[in-house]
Amino acid sequence: MNPRRVVITGIGAITPIGRGKDGLWQGVRAGRRAGRTITRFDPSPFPSHVAAEIVDFDPLDYIESRRVRRMDRFSQLSVAAARQALEDAGICLGSSELREAAVYLGSALGGVSYAEEQHTRYLADGFHAVDSTLALVVFGGAGATNVAMDLGINGSVIGNANSCASGLIAIGQAFELIRSGATSLALAGGAEAPLAPLAFGAFARVHALTTRNECPESASRPFDRNRDGFMMGEGSAVLVLEDLENALRHDRRPLAEIVGFGVTNDAYHMTAPLASGEQAARAVTLALTQARIDPSDVGYLNAHATGTPLGDAAEARAIDVAFDTAAERLPVSGTKGLHGHALGATGAIEAAITVLALQHGWLPPTANLEEPDPECGLSHVPACGLTRNVEFAVTNSFGFGGINASLVLRPL
User: Fold this and answer.
1) Of 339, 341, 376, 380, which is the active-site residue?
2) Contact call for residues 316 and 378 (beta carbons, < 8 A)
3) What tens digit of pLDDT does each residue of 256-288 get?
4) Which stretch of DSSP H or E encloses residue 144?
5) Any catalytic annotation for residue 164?
6) CA–CA separation, 307 vs 227, rounded Å?
7) Which of 49, 164, 339, 380 is catalytic?
8) Rounded to an integer, what distance in angstroms lies between the CA atom of residue 195 and that of residue 299?
9) Burial (CB count <10 Å: 0-12, 13-18, 19+), residue 213
10) Which residue among the candidates 92, 207, 215, 304 is catalytic per the annotation?
11) What would the pLDDT profile of 112-155 be if each residue is shown by its tens digit?
């Protein structure tokens, strides 16, 4: 049996720079930078005081109140983005085809922030003050299962916790499921709501966060000589993936096609990437091989580009290894200077941005890249962006524990 062709027909997104497919793209095109001094809690005990918060999200805009009360913020973001994605694809809630669909969602931390809040209540007022549904709300698969319950989906429902690569891995796994013929329709992406003192402080403790507190909007500086860490964010993005024949049969217009996916592991360190970038490069190569294309066929690379000194340098080396001489002409950018690093959701958000870049024929620049680091000697997209139609694009997502994921997309 020949592999099925897998297309993206809908995008949903709740991010600090815009909601929905159009809102997200407007935020990217406007260069909207979400960095702000944290308001969700007092950041003064920590060296980092900045984050990319979502300030205008009301779950009641998407979910009925009785269900909202049974979800924490990460599940609310999951369901909201999934509903948006279905609407964008033109799939009606209650549709019979949803019953056999799949849900693949990633989240690095799941409901850890809500667990932290409930622990504070426990310390203050004891056992009976704790939410009786806590165990059901905070586990890593709660986002995926809440989406399934909300939409009436009875197919394969999988939540993964593969660190900051979770969202892209969820999309890749859904791609492979549809490609194999096991299902014709899936919702895939990621959600993260990590902005609480313990979770935030844990990343500060390992020196992963930027401490450029004096100018929050420019604190996140991927590939810049003066980068010093990532800016934590929150958000969600969910894509509707379909077998191409299924999409055409239902008169749904594909936004892009997924043609390759690769995953590897550095097997080296929990926080530091393998400096040579060789396993990250292999993830890219695996994805290109599955797509049956050469490195020179790729016209844009959306980088993981967190703004950490070690991470960006290792990714630049990985790009050089994977693309060889083609790297000299490959436009590269990262968008975390806009929307921050939403951990397990970030790969899904950036996959959505990559699809939109292909659709609109415009490649976004890297926000706050003022002095490119010679150690990251890439062909950076210029600050004004780049108007260009490309045949293939790659988006990377890497995570703690040495997890490397890469996805190849093409416009349709």
Assistant:
1) 341
2) yes
3) 999 999 999 999 999 999 999 999 999 999 999
4) helix 142-151
5) yes
6) 6
7) 164
8) 35
9) middle
10) 304
11) 999 999 999 999 999 999 999 999 999 999 999 999 999 999 99
